[in-house]
Amino acid sequence: MSAVGRFAPSPSGYMHLGNLLAMLLAWLDCRALGGEMVFRMEDLDPARSKRVYAEAMANDLRWLGLDWDRGWPDPDYAQSKRGAVYETYFQQLKDRDLVYPCWCTRSERLAAASAPHPGEKEHDSGCRCARLSRDEREALLRGGSR
């Protein structure tokens, strides 16, 4: 399989250096490997996502000599149009019992994301909800406590 590079900005403003650097690095890597470059819009915030910003980004990239093989302005490469695809895969995960609700508090989630520092005792990292059995999850959903 050949390499595929992806640039997926949010069209909520004009091009900035972070956008440009992300595209340039993906483009250089992809082209060096003889791969295909994809330009997909992360337009999941309808209040802030504007076509004028997407068009301006595309024009800026073309002016800089950066091209892509698939994607924008093809509507199939807009994140907001892919809900059915995501729902299909989400259902597959649910069918395999790989999706679970989480009852962890915000502080528990933040603590799970940090590693122990020298001198600290090791702690149980990760969401404990992921280790609950299906029966335990169903009991919690019915109103039990963790």
Question: Short description, anyone?
Answer:
This protein is mainly alpha-helical and 146 residues long. The chain is 39% helix and 7% strand. The radius of gyration is 21 Å and the shape is elongated.
List the helices and strands and how they pair.
Blueprint: E1 4-7, H1 17-32, E2 36-39, H2 51-63, E3 70-71, H3 83-95, H4 106-112, H5 134-141
Parallel strand pairs: 1-2, 2-3
Task: Note the main attributes of this structure.
146 residues, Rossmann fold, 2 domains, 39% helix, 5 helices, 3-stranded parallel β-sheet, mainly alpha
Give the DSSP E fraction (strand runs of 2 or more residues): 5-15%
CATH class of the largest domain: Alpha Beta
Structural domains: how many: 2
State the helicity in percent bands: 25-40%
Distance between the termini: 46 Å
Largest sheet: 3 strands, parallel
Number of helical elements:
5
| CATH-assigned homologous superfamily of the largest domain | HUPs
Mean pLDDT: 86
| Assigned CATH architecture of the largest domain | 3-Layer(aba) Sandwich
Strand line-up of the largest beta sheet: 1-2-3
CATH fold group of the largest domain: Rossmann fold
Number of strands: 3
Report the principal-axis shape: elongated
Low-confidence stretches: none
The gyration radius over C-alpha positions equals 21 Å
The structure class reads mainly alpha
Order of helices and strands, N to C? EHEHEHHH
